[in-house]
Amino acid sequence: VSAGNGCGHTLLTPHSGTLSSKNYPGTYPNHTMCCWRLQAPPGTSLLLAFGDVDLEPSEHCAHSSLLLADPQTGTAYGPYCRNSVPSAPLLVTNSSTVTILFNSTSHRSGRGLLLSYATSQHPGTHYTQEHVSPDPSLIMCFSVYCPAGCKDIHGDIWGNPSQGYRDTSVLCKAAVHAGVIADELGGQVTLSREKGITLYESAFANGLRSKRGSLSEKRLIFHKGFPVCCLLSPACDDVLEVVAFNASSWWHEVDVLGQDRAWVAEQAALSTTGHSWAAEPGAKAAWLELDLGTRRNVTGIITKGSSGQHNYFVTSYHVSSSRDGKNWRSYRGSSGQEDKVFEGNADSQGEVSNAFIPPMVARYIR
């Protein structure tokens, strides 16, 4: 839990999370405070990674400070500020409960703070457990645990799931973009550093826009990821075949020349040229249905607008699934609390991918 007027981006779960001060990485405000209480499952302890602690220096950190306390043992850590920083980037506690207190008085500078945490079940948080070959010509593979909340931290990513990512990208943020972890949960990621490429193309995926980037010596390849395709199978390199399309309605257009154009459901396939599917104008709760022919494990979807001639696209959507075509279940994602709203397209040209974490087992998708 968190409380106070100085809290910035905060995502706390029982197993990991990310927190920052207000306005981070811009200058934090005057006369603010925030208190975060971290609670791990019984029998585990908390590990805290100091991503950034940049509070204006003062004697005994009196003007702005970060203080951590372990109420179970009575141990305190800090106070910290710019002239009194943590002695190590990783703090290993012996407690399942930690209280973090940030406060500021009048000041002129300072980015504030960025912290992440995980439990002792995930000791690789933000630090690579690398398996390095003595032969420098071989690919270097490693694993890292990414805490929840990486999507909204400061920093850029270059590349996309099919190419890989420029090695200067924020690693865990790139993992969310690639669809290997859900931002609201985090998780273990296995990846490799491979030879870089000349150009990294921008893409919009899982609510994040990557940048178009130039040559790098190395690139990051996520091994839980999937390449760009339409509906995605667990094999990760197969597009799932759609046996039949159905829709709540379709638009029967008569253009200015009096010619008929049918925007039928069959036009919804990603590879279709010309116009796409569109519901009848004014239709409410419109849906498109895909029949996969048999029950399949579906790990993601890619959407695209209609052709450049017809600048139409869907900006957001829900997904539901069925095994028999009669009983439908709304997709709620990893949180399981409410129906997930997927962020769709912003124009008619680009493809937007969204991962299903966890995957769905279904024959029918709406």
UniProtKB/TrEMBL annotation:
Positions of the CUB domain: 7-120
Subcellular location: Membrane
GO MF entry, a single one: signaling receptor activity
GO CC annotation terms, alphabetical: plasma membrane
Disulfide bonds: 7-34
Keywords, sorted A to Z: Disulfide bond, Membrane, Phosphoprotein, Transmembrane, Transmembrane helix
Every LCCL domain range: 144-220
Residue ranges crossing the lipid bilayer per the database entry: none
SUPFAM superfamilies named among the record's database cross-references: Galactose-binding domain-like, LCCL domain, Spermadhesin, CUB domain
Segments forming domain F5/8 type C: 230-366
Membrane association type: Single-pass type I membrane protein
Designated name of the protein: DCBD1 protein
This protein's encoding gene: Dcbld1_1
